[in-house]
Amino acid sequence: MRLNSADAVAAAVYGQPGSGARFDWGLAGAAELGRVCSVLVVVDVLSFTTAVEVAVGRGMRVHPFPWGEQAAEYARRVGAVAAVGRRRTTPEQPWSLSPAALSRAPVVSDLVLPSPNGSAISAAASATGLPVVAACLRNARAVGRWLRQQGYGGTDTPVGVVASGERWPDGSLRPAVEDQLGAACVLDAISGVRGGLSVEAAMTLAALASTPDVPAAVRGCVSGRELTEGGFAQDVEVAVQVGVSTVVPVLRQGVFTAA
After folding, report:
1. Which residue range(s) make up the domain with 28?
2. pLDDT tens digits, residue range 17-57?
3. Which Pfam families does the record associate with it (predicted)?
């Protein structure tokens, strides 16, 4: 179906044209930026991209996969270990979406890491053929340095930063404080790119400027409290370690490895 002129103009605007760094939310935002950007940065602080940073930092190759029972079958097909839900870990199966658990679990060469948000977005984004980077509070500065070193950030090589967000019970997107702040930390690290920031990216960065204590904000937000009250405070503590990592996980051919 061909778009009429009004729809075509709207579709172009959604890509935030004319800027070197752009920002959007969720799966739909990633799809939109994936049409027009040269690289996508996915942020899911609690907990997918933090878990990816931990696992890749320990030498594991991480395969993103949407949440569901099919992950185990996919893992068998590619010769990998499938991570399970946080509450389903056992001594024999210690790999899960928990960054704290992954920091202690035995290292495996290939890990399928499903999640309903960041992993699903990453898996879908990989189909674009673009490089996809996993960013979190721990490695946002390193991701920013890598993006600039690679020459991204011009109007002809724009960066798309995607905050994964969470889900309401009806499946709709719930914008999440931790992902907004994680995305803002990446944008802060590339704020001087020659193409400048889109309005959406600049407003996201402004949220960081008005947050005096990022770890405290993540601990106190809905997602942080949900994990803490569910018995996974250690995951929050791993995730709020700002700027401690130089690992830049890049997704190419369906697998996250260190850049």
Report:
1. 18-57+129-258
2. 999 999 999 999 999 999 999 999 999 999 999 999 999 99
3. 2-ph_phosp
Q: Is residue 173 in some structural domain? A: yes
Residue carrying the six token digits 């890049």: 250
Distance CA 99, CA 87 (A): 13
Query: How remote is the C-alpha of 167 from its chain's centroid?
Result: 15
CATH number at residue 252: 3.90.1560.10
In a domain, 32, yes or no: yes
Q: What angle do CA 227, 228, 231 make, to 5 degrees?
A: 90
Q: Which residue has the tokens 């990816």?
A: 52
Q: Is residue 61 over pLDDT 70?
A: yes
The answer to whether the beta carbons of residues 215 and 199 sit under 8 Å apart is no
Q: What does the alpha-carbon distance between residue 250 and residue 259 come to, in Å, rounded to a whole number? A: 6
The pTM assigned to this predicted structure is 0.95
pLDDT, residue 255, reads: 97
CA distance 78 to 66: 15
Name the nearest CA neighbour of 83 among 50, 58, 59, 108.
108
Cis peptide before 47 (omega within 30 of 0): yes
Any idea what the Cα angle at residue 54 is, between residues 252 and 75, rounded to 5°? 55
Task: Give pLDDT, residue 60.
Answer: 98
Considering its fold, how many domains does the chain have in total?
A: 1
State the average pLDDT over residues 171-199.
97
| Buried residues in 43-82 as b, exposed as e (16+ CB within 10 A) | bbbbbbbbbbbbbbbbebbbbbbbeeeebbebbeeeebbb
pLDDT band at 69, cuts 50/70/90?
confident
The answer to the question of residue 157 being in a domain is yes
